[in-house]
Amino acid sequence: MRLTPVMHRYIVHWGEMGSRWGINRSVAQIHALLYLAPNPLHADEIAETLGIARSNVSVGIKELLAWELVQVTHTLGDRRDFFVAQRDPWEVIRVIVEGRKRREIDPTLAFLRTCVSELETDSETPAEVRERIAGQLEFLETLTRWYDSIKSLPRKTLLKMMRLGQKIAKVIGE
Amino acid sequence: MRLTPVMHRYIVHWGEMGSRWGINRSVAQIHALLYLAPNPLHADEIAETLGIARSNVSVGIKELLAWELVQVTHTLGDRRDFFVAQRDPWEVIRVIVEGRKRREIDPTLAFLRTCVSELETDSETPAEVRERIAGQLEFLETLTRWYDSIKSLPRKTLLKMMRLGQKIAKVIGE
DNA sequence: CTAAAATTTCAGAAAAGACTGAAATAACGG
DNA sequence: CCGTTATTTCAGTCTTTTCTGAAATTTTAG
User: Fold this and answer.
1) Do residues B118 and A10 make contact, with C-beta atoms less than 8 angstroms apart?
2) Chain B contact for A149 (CB, 8 A cutoff)
3) A38 near B126, Cβ under 8 Å?
4) What is the pLDDT of residues B43-76, one digit of tens each?
5) How far apart are CA B98 and CA B38, in angstroms?
6) Cβ-contact A130, B113 below 8 angstroms
7) How close is the nearest chain B Cα to the Cα of A127, in Å?
8) In chain A, where do the E strands start and end?
9) B158 and A143 in contact (C-beta within 8 Å)?
């Protein structure tokens, strides 16, 4: 696929952003490319467009499929796999947040709970340490409880709530 | 500083978490150590406790100071720098989010605006691409507007809003 | 000032992570 | 089946990032 200068810069930008957030640069670039592409692309075209090895695309696509940010499609008379990205930014963010929660936050919560419970009978660790960890755990629990409570609200409701943010604050504030 | 097994595991865990989110492992470990430590530590003690080079601590601390997640303190009769971490998890997250917004989101917003404006007179890029980028920009703008509107609310108000999340949704929902 | 202590800098080493290409495997069409 | 095309795997290489240690710099106490 031919990249115009803007598309090129866009893909480079998101590759860069990805690597700052712990996402493999190629994976981020593939996603950016598919996000822009007007139609599904097959792996060879992705590799050629981005100038990376075909095998690298294979691995990257696999990861994006696992994240459910990309889907496979097919065309009649062509047995290659074609790929399309989720194009709705709200959905993209939802999937990423949900994935990172599951892979990173949930295990962390579990870990912190173990720590706190172990520390109840651990006399060698200062009490202060236990309080710190418990505080952090409580904070994370508050956050995830909130997330769970809003994550499946319809987008419209979410948008309204976001727009009302400060007004709600004023009403509650008293 | 002597680390008990739980403290040790805690620090390793956050080092690991950090590196998954694009934060240098040593930096994350230093922060975790200071978050737990009952009193301020000096650089040598940090290096020794974590088993990393003194110079590495120097660089890491500098970064944490730049993030304002760590502060310097002093003791009478000791000219070394001692360091303490921000211990309030809410404040920790606030500082991190604010920092990442400033360093990454704001430049991205600026970049996307340039793209969209350039694409107005760019005939070689498909119109679809412009719409995709514009859609993403709008989404990010909605998100940051919301963030700006709530970021300086008092914690109590924020907590109330979070607890009420779904109830508000029901009222608004109609 | 001087000397000792504390801190920082930074070139090079080490480690981690990403990427390639060749070979293996899988998926079809006939 | 068999040959062709598509995809995946993975050992080895390359790149990037992180870390170290020695030297330079800064700070401070006397």
Assistant:
1) no
2) yes
3) yes
4) 999 999 999 999 999 999 999 999 999 999 999 9
5) 27
6) no
7) 9
8) 41-42, 70-75, 78-85
9) no
